[in-house]
UniProtKB/TrEMBL annotation, chain A:
Gene3D superfamilies in the record: Heterotetrameric sarcosine oxidase, Probable tRNA modification gtpase trme, domain 1
Matching SUPFAM superfamilies: Folate-binding domain
Lineage start: Bacteria, Bacillati, Actinomycetota, Actinomycetes, Streptosporangiales
One Pfam family per UniProt: SoxG
Protein's name according to its UniProt entry: Sarcosine oxidase subunit gamma
Length: 200, 92
């Protein structure tokens, strides 16, 4: 292709960048806020939770690895999400990847640990506001009531048949969606939120 | 739709799981010593009870762990779930 050189130097574009204007329009009513947080650093971490390496990693990043299923722990600009009994997702700000990987590997100190930068795998969508639960309930079978799924909880589940990591926050939810599903999930969110936006 | 209680994540929709067939089929001690018939029996022959059946499930859309469940094949009622490596619990 003639323009391949131009593409290789092109600005990077987040998977849901094309939805920014429609997200903003849907958020105008006030009852719901949709947005994308692009380019967050995501590190997949696998380590035996009972090993000394797990403890050292917790100390090194300032967040003890949460061992209770479906919980998230935060500290500083990092958040650690429980993905499985020996698997976590460390989420940090854009650009933190290489440094974070280095810190994790250093803390592992040669023990049997897997650290993989998967930042490009998913993008983050925000579904916040009073109507956030109603919107997600259209396509998610989980009980999202704050008594069960309040701040500090996270889950890998299906939203409208697409695999997502769902993270509960103080003011709503974040969805970590695979890049190739981001367009579909964004369209689905906009479609579902129509009734809440129109009604005010 | 079944509601399957993953031993890690709690109750989730059946659509989040993959089925793994009969549980507790042990790999032969010395596979090379088996006759063709014995090997075929290990590979292909499975129980098909009407009633309680211990089977493997994988929570593919969640924690992606394999676990075992005791399900009543006649009623689809799940009587117990337990993690890999744990013995089959006693069920009525």
């Amino acid at each position: 292709m003639a323009d391949s050189a131009a593409e290789s130097t092109a600005e990077r574009r987040s998977p849901a960048a094309a939805f920014a204007a429609r997200f903003e329009a849907a958020s105008a009513g006030g009852g719901l806020r949709l947005a994308e947080i692009p380019f967050l650093t995501q590190i997949n971490l696998r380590v035996d939770p009972k090993s000394p390496a797990a403890e050292r990693i917790g100390t090194a990043i300032g967040v003890p690895l949460p061992v209770e299923p479906g919980t998230a722990a935060g500290g500083g600009d990092l958040e650690v999400l429980w993905l499985g009994p020996d698997e976590w997702l460390v989420v940090g700000p854009d650009g933190a990847g290489p440094g974070l990987v280095e810190r994790l590997i250093e803390a592992a100190d040669g023990e049997h640990v897997s650290v993989v930068d998967v930042s490009a795998q998913r993008t983050t969508l925000v579904v916040a506001g009073d109507r956030a639960r109603d919107v997600l309930a259209h396509g998610c079978a989980l009980d999202l009531h704050p008594r069960v799924f309040g701040p500090g909880r996270c889950a890998q589940t299906m939203l409208a048949r697409a695999g997502v990591v769902l993270v509960a926050g103080e003011d709503g939810f974040r969805l970590l969606v695979r890049s190739s599903f981001a367009g579909y999930v964004a369209e689905w969110l906009l479609d579902v939120s129509a009734e809440y936006v129109a009604g005010g | 739709m079944l509601l399957i209680p993953c031993p890690w994540c709690g109750p989730r929709d059946e659509a989040e799981f993959h089925y793994g067939g009969q549980a507790h089929v042990a790999y032969p001690e010395d596979p090379a010593a088996l006759s063709d018939e014995e090997w075929a029996r290990y590979l292909f022959f499975r129980d098909n009870p009407k009633g309680l059946f211990a089977e493997r499930w994988s929570h593919t859309a969640g924690c992606r762990r394999w676990f075992n469940a005791v399900r009543d094949t006649a009623t689809n009622e799940i009587h117990a779930v337990y993690r890999v490596g744990e013995p089959r619990p006693v069920t009525a």
